[in-house]
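Q: Sequence in, structure out?
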Amino acid sequence: QALMTAKAAGVRGLDDDIDRGIDWLVRAQRKDGSFGGGVSTEGSNTNSTGLVAQTLRAAGRTAAYEKARDYVRSLTVTTANARGTQLADERGAIAYNGEALSNGKANGIRGRDQWRRATAQAIFALAPVSFVDLGKKRLGGDPSLQGRDRGRGPGAPGVPPAGAPGAGRASDLTVVDPPKGSAPVEAPTAAGPGGRLGSYLAGRLVDGDHVEVTDGRTTYVDYDLTASVVLSLRQLGEQPKAAERASRFLLDRRSVAASVHGKPYETSTATYAEPLARLALVARSADSTRLRARAGALLDDLHELEGRGGRYDDTGTYAADAADTVRQSWIALALASRRRDTGAAVAPLTRSVCRDGSVPRSLGAACRGTDLVATALAAQALNATSGPRATTRDLAPAAASRTAFDSDRRKAVAQVAGALQRASHDDGRLVDAAQARRPGSVSEVAGGRQAVGYDVTAVRQVLAPMMRRDGGAPRLVGQKRSDLEASAAASAGLSGRSWLSTPGLGLAPGVLATTPATTRPGTSGLVWTPLTIALVALGAALLLGATSTTAFVLGRRSSAGRIPHLPRSTT
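A: Exactly. Output:
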């Protein structure tokens, strides 16, 4: 904490030392969440545990902190555990260890000095105010609300969650335009709409590292939209310095406290699963080794939220709906990026796929009014597995990994692949007229199709005329102003990538599409893998040789337009 305090005072170059110290503390934690001290205090005790808990909380290691806090709580004298004992009048005192609590219940407190010392240090596990905050000249009020006077740097209040004081409708918020020239923008890596979109996204970052929104009275940091911009820049392969700056902002411990743990709105411990998942992917895609290393701790915290049936339950007053399909898809994508993670988070998505391959916005809901964009993201989550941390700009259809999916999951991938293919015209335009007017929807469906093996590079030509002169995308075709959220969503279509082929995320597709698709004249719907190329070449050779053999080869395509079964690996 001394190093953290020095960092807060402006000393640079301490991040690695702080991270190593925190990692050591996490490794030293015992199974019951406790810590021991030095000579003669090696056993588990609340003195040591309280001070370490304070440090873990300040470092954003929520899972380890909560274990330490629970240990201290178990040794705190309460009305319930002291009733009928000699500690009935000592509520609030904290015992040094389990033996001290048992002796106190039987004989009362004898030797108050140990109890005073234990309580004074252990209390930091229950009221974890860091020494950085305690060193301020004016602390005042609820410690959880500190940080409002830091301006809109890391840890500044984010958009109030639904139900929190001051929360309004998302439609009432407008993105703050940074002062002209204040957001550093590099020269585009590639000419064309993708490069212009990257410049537009980087140019919307206040101070070059975050997005701000206002409701007309109050300005907030929009941590979620900042994460969307970062991931979209990584997908485009554009503006790497802006993406890295914003990644550092988001992964700052103060920002994690605001976006993941609800500060300053939550009055008790809270953890939100979807922001954790998206931050883990932001960390995975970072250029800095130090930032990438934070993905592991974020995923560990995400695992702590796992509930029954593969759902992940937020904690806190303003918990999100655990049945939201988009939320569950982001969780599954993040967990898939780590090789040792299982596909437990995919199970609720698999069960929610409707007979026609579409997916409702709410897991397990009736299959009426399904959501095309939710289906596209669910397709990527269903087909996601860990892969190499690729850094290439290859826009070809993704190759399948060698990960084996069970039959239910393979069937679900095939179903959603068919649904997305039927929802699209030959050139990538959407069949649904209303959705076709939304550049973000066109792009996100393309991302879902690419994730299951379809070549979607033609979608770029569909999106290009929809983009505005400033490089951004409108929410609806015909609107004059670019919309930041729609612009971030446009990255998949303009790059020809899904999240499974975005450089740095460590994701790959598990299988390639093997599903019936509605095929129109002039398109084959085939995924161009080495096998399909070989089949076409063989067909051409046989066409020159024998009509009967040609008929046999062409017969692999049925009148219904069925895609030939493709191998799980194209390597």
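The chain has 26 helices and five strands.
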